[in-house]
Specification:
Helices cover 39% and strands 18% of the residues. The protein is an alpha+beta fold. Strand 13 (333-343) and strand 14 (348-356) form a beta hairpin.
């Protein structure tokens, strides 16, 4: 920690982060497909997950920031406007197409040194698959009938060898997901989907480091080296050099949360000044466990004093919060976790477990019940 590091209260730190996450106002991005683009560009990515006891995480995260969100808005953004695309960040996610070149180095690296599981992939089979997509248009795994099936490598895998070929094309950048129906993906040639006259130029390592820093400052407000490079640990040295240069230019200010002097963070001066002011319109939000505010567990605990447990893969008798617990944000505090499940035939949202982290005051219960009503309507939508 530098000697000039400024102490901030945990409440100030939370205010900075919540404002950066756009969780301080009701509808920061408007509505419709363009709101999806704006939200994804601001956050940097929206994580995808398969669990669907309630609406899947990518829809949930967007709905949290776009109250009028409709699933078709994301479909149009991906398949028609093509303003977002799918790729790997720290997990599978929707990413702004405007950032595509930042992911080209990872695609090129995968092509040059693919994972060992692709070592015995048949090059002729892959070439034939690309030709079929080129000739016939986008394909999903259901459109392909392989003559010979293989054993599954994991429970969520496929016995079709073409599944691996499609994934190779996805990670290498030859293919992109042109449409998603539920969790069924259709793949098209990237060049055709994006209608590029030529493929974008890959970002340099320096440009990628600038991108990571700018993305974190924009979406996290108060940043640490770990939070900036979450999922990209190899970029830490380059990012730290940029931070030091920004501090010298007084573009970033070193700060730390009171009583956590060893946890070095940085913030832009304007955000530090604004953190003294309380949140204008405190919100009540039921958050996905994959929300950007929740996914970095150590950071979450440092800022909010809340340790989230993701227990979907924990034996039932060892769960504390429940199978798919959702943190509940009221103002600048996480006050409860709700294990929810949607009874789709009945059109009813079920609360399977309610865990309080504060005194369960009547005003909190009213605020959460109102949020649950809105959340149930979204599930039905």
């Amino acid at each position: 920690m530098t000697l000039s590091s400024i102490p901030v209260t945990a409440r100030q730190a939370r205010a900075i982060w919540l404002r950066a996450q756009r969780l301080d106002i009701p509808a920061p991005f408007g509505e419709g497909p363009d709101a999806v683009r704006l939200a994804t560009e601001h956050l940097g990515y929206v994580q995808i997950d398969t669990i669907n006891v309630i609406e899947r995480s990518h829809h949930h995260i967007l709905h949290t920031r776009i109250p009028a969100y409709r699933r078709v808005d994301l479909e149009q953004s991906q398949s028609e406007a093509k303003s977002v695309f799918e790729y790997w960040t720290h997990a599978l996610a929707y990413v702004p197409t405007s950032d595509y070149r930042m992911y080209l180095p990872a695609m090129n690296q995968f092509r040059a040194r693919p994972h060992a599981s692709y070592a015995d992939m048949d090059a002729q089979h892959y070439a034939a698959l690309l030709k079929r997509i080129r000739d016939d248009g986008a394909l999903s795994i259901r459109d392909i009938n392989d003559d010979v099936l293989v054993e599954k490598t994991h429970p969520w895998g496929s016995r079709k060898p073409s599944r691996r070929a499609l994934r190779y094309g996805f990670f290498s950048g030859d293919l992109t997901v042109s449409k998603r129906t539920g969790m069924l993906k259709s793949y098209d040639l990237s060049a055709r989907h994006f209608a590029w006259p030529r493929r974008p130029r890959p970002a340099t390592a320096q440009q990628f480091a600038h991108y990571l820093l700018a993305r974190a400052v924009r979406s996290q407000g108060m940043v640490s080296l770990d939070s900036i490079c979450f999922g990209n640990a190899g970029a830490k040295a380059a990012v730290r050099t940029l931070i030091d240069a920004a501090v010298k230019k007084k573009q970033l200010v070193p700060v730390h949360i009171e009583n956590h002097a060893k946890s070095q963070h940085w913030v832009v001066p304007a955000a530090l000044e604004n953190s003294i002011e309380p949140l204008v319109t405190p919100r009540t939000a039921i958050l996905s466990p994959f929300d950007p505010l929740i996914i970095q567990r150590k950071r979450l605990h440092l800022f909010f004093g809340y340790e989230h447990r993701f227990e979907a893969y924990v034996p039932a008798d060892k769960r504390v919060l429940g199978y798919f617990a959702l943190p509940v944000l009221v103002g600048d505090e996480i006050v409860a976790a709700l294990d929810l499940k949607m009874d789709r035939p009945a059109g009813r949202l079920m609360v399977q477990k309610w865990t309080w982290f504060t005194e369960p005051r009547p005003d909190l219960r009213i605020a959460i019940d109102e949020a649950l009503g809105r959340f149930e309507l979204f599930q039905k939508g």
